[in-house]
Amino acid sequence: MQELLSCPICSGTRLQRALHVKDHSVSHxxxxxxRCLECSFLFTNPRPGPSxxxxxxxxxxxxxxxxSKKGLxxxxxxxxxxxxxxxxxGLxxxxAKGPKTLLxxxxxxxxxxxxxxxxxxxxxxxxxxxxxxxxxxxxxxLNVEDPSGLKALPDGQFGAIxxxxxxxxxxxLQETVSQLKRCLASNGVMIIAxxxxxxxxxxxxxxxxxxxxxxxxxxxxxxxxxxxLMQQHGLACVSVEGMFFDPFYISxxxxxxxxxxxxxxxxxxxxxxxxxxxxxxxxxxxxLLYIFKHRE
Length: 296
Ligand SMILES: [Zn+2]
Prior knowledge:
Layout: E1 15-22, E2 30-36, E3 42-44, H1 71-95, E4 101-105, H2 111-118, E5 122-126, H3 130-140, E6 144-145, E7 158-164, H4 173-183, E8 184-195, H5 202-205, E9 219-220, H6 223-231, E10 235-242, H7 246-259, H8 264-277, E11 287-294
Parallel strand pairs: 4-5, 4-7, 5-6, 7-8
Antiparallel strand pairs: 1-2, 2-3, 3-9, 8-11, 10-11
Helix pairs in contact: 1-2, 7-8
The structure holds zinc ion.
């Protein structure tokens, strides 16, 4: 296990235990989430180190990186993912004004990257999971490398860099953001989606909120902490919005963790409530989608 002695964002050393959260999907172990008393950032601590984390992704239930079509939940997930890819691509094509070169950091099995390439982008992908890289190569003929390749990429190469639910998994947080910023073209956009630890439904689900997803989620970002982190690297937030499916998907899993079993009606109720309350207050969304540019 790896224990951080200071806050990954502000380096503050006054850390307080905030929550005990169970890993519901793989190990069923319990992990501590700590809060930095300087900046309020929440993070999983201690956490499995980079060489220890892989087993925590080994599960039939952990479907983010696979294409298994078993079960109703997976069917809904696959359908939602297709819709989500279309909406991500629409956003990318709307906000990106620089060169049509894309880096999808943590590209998984490459579905989004493949869709972007089809719509005219020159795409590169980095992904730590060898199985997912192999699927990206095999299914989409994408050349996907291990994230250690990031350091070797040229300065200012990418008109867009995307991290779809990825940054919360990255051990070397500051170093990774610094390298990504280096690779971003001067007029490029960085698009980052992460769960929002201040989501409306967190009040209801507490430690059973599915997007804590310990120990795979190392950080539990809020709008404030994300913007603070990126500011440290000279990146300015130009927009924040919610993600349509996440309140429903996160509530569906959270219902299972809190009550056991499949409770779609309750999940739809909770997801609708979050969506409704977040329509005027963005930072109540289950997940937030940020767009960053170089600060002028
Ligand atoms: Zn801090």
